[in-house]
What we know:
The protein is mainly α. 68% of the residues lie in helices and 2% in strands. Strands 1-4 form a two-stranded antiparallel sheet. Strands 2-3 form a two-stranded antiparallel ribbon. Residues 525-529 and 584-591 have low confidence and may be disordered.
Amino acid sequence: MSVQTWTWILVGITFSIYFGIAIWARAGSTKEFYIAGGGVSPLANGMATAADWMSAASFISMAGIISFAGYDGSVYLMGWTGGYVLLALLLAPYLRKFGKFTVPDFIGDRYYSNTARTVAVFCALIVSFTYVAGQMRGVGIVFSQFLQVDIIWGVIIGMIVVLFFAFLGGMKGITYTQVAQYCVLIFAFMVPAFFISLQMTGNIIPQVGMGGTLEDGSYLLDTLDSLHTKLGFSEYTTGSKSTWDIFAITLALMVGTAGLPHVIVRFFTVPKVKDARKSAGLALLFIAILYTTAPAIAVFARTNLITTVSEQPYSSSPDWLKNWENTGLIAWTDKNNDGKIQYVAGSSIEGKKPVYTEDRGKHGERLISNANKSTNELYVDRDIMVLANPEIANLPNWVIALVAAGGLAAALSTAAGLLLVISTSISHDLIKKQFKPDISDKGELLAARISILFAVIIAGLFGIYPPGFVAAVVALAFGLAAASFFPAIILGIFDKRMNREGAIAGMVVGITLMLFYMIRYRTGLIGVMDPRPASEWWFGTSPEGFGTVAMVVNVIVSLVVSRMTPPPPQEVQEIVERIRIPSGVGEAVEH
């Protein structure tokens, strides 16, 4: 059967499972809608947390970034993994004990201020919508390529699927759907890795195969380093980023993780604090399976890409290249008119994205109308590397289709969690806590579902008009979370003297600074300016790493303002003391 037929079959089966779970897990109360009734088992919650955590950025883009950036791309691996450990050990138990299942709710009560709550809601919406943009972009890529559906219709189908199980079941429906999605995405990620590792190195374990030898006896990583230097790229195993920027990006990703609202709420879906710790440990194990495999897939994909296209005549290029060329995510322009694909260091285009013409060159190449003077003739979007990897390696059609189903599972699972955060921020933190405190349970549930409907529509627009490749957008979301939420949460737990004035000032300054830097140096202003070059970065800090700088500024502003204004009420300080004392200590002392 063809790839398209296999894809329709596998996507149809998996989507049917998701719909079935959504119908079975319908939410009948706000508690079920917000935190799945608080009765999820640690094992199920661990799998759901892993699926929620491993978004399209983890499944589609992380290996793609590592594949192109080599050592420099490892910051995503270190930052996201370390961030989850930071969240699970340093913040989650205390937030669970405080008893507030949304970040704005914690900030509003801890800082005894609806103004603080409103600022936190604004930050949650900014972070969640920035993050969800990457997920919908991933959905569009998968649908457009594997199901031959226009990218707009692909995003719309994804919107309908997410809306169905989020609208019906809320967190309850999302949790059990994410258990199924984890199984799908991890199977889809690992099977091609096993195939390609065995094919290239004779070792079925990808993590071992990455450091193994090829048929000619040479080490795979040495061969890749040699290919890179031959084409003018820096050595794959040696980074080009400064030590400071690597540190800044890694730290921004780590502390941004600890401020992500859609992950924090997961620790409230289990019955006890003890179960929250268990599910955190299980989730880390489930996440590690994919995260330790991603570098191996990156190495395999990069090696196969270079060896199958570089210096090859376009007329005899492999089918996968021409298949992906139709999506606009890969393109070739024959600049020296020799009919061969010249893939070397340097951008093939001017600006961030290529502009294609519908005409073909005399060798059949897809023209890039704004090609620059670089000798590089090939444009490759990083987001295609994991999805195209099985095709590049010439694996069976069912494996190629399986990866498509896995990519959809990864994108949809995280999108659902983010949309629930957006919905909760509006229905619970704004309507219930501020505008209409006497609203009934049924009324709040209706408001939550209406909020999800509008959130899905906005998320869909992000998918149709994406702001950039998936992992870059997601990295900026982590920077926004680092700049806004993390200081307010960590100081709210460990600093009794932190008051509402300090927290509000810190969040406002942090999120504003990060938004300014992100717009100025990464996205630009449409019709006004282009993104500024790397030579103008402050302190040599990339936009992905600037969350660290903004976070430090947030902390300084928070501490200074809090010390210049009255301390928080005594009862708030006592609450802060209590949440840091392990359960049962008081009873043990008394006896």
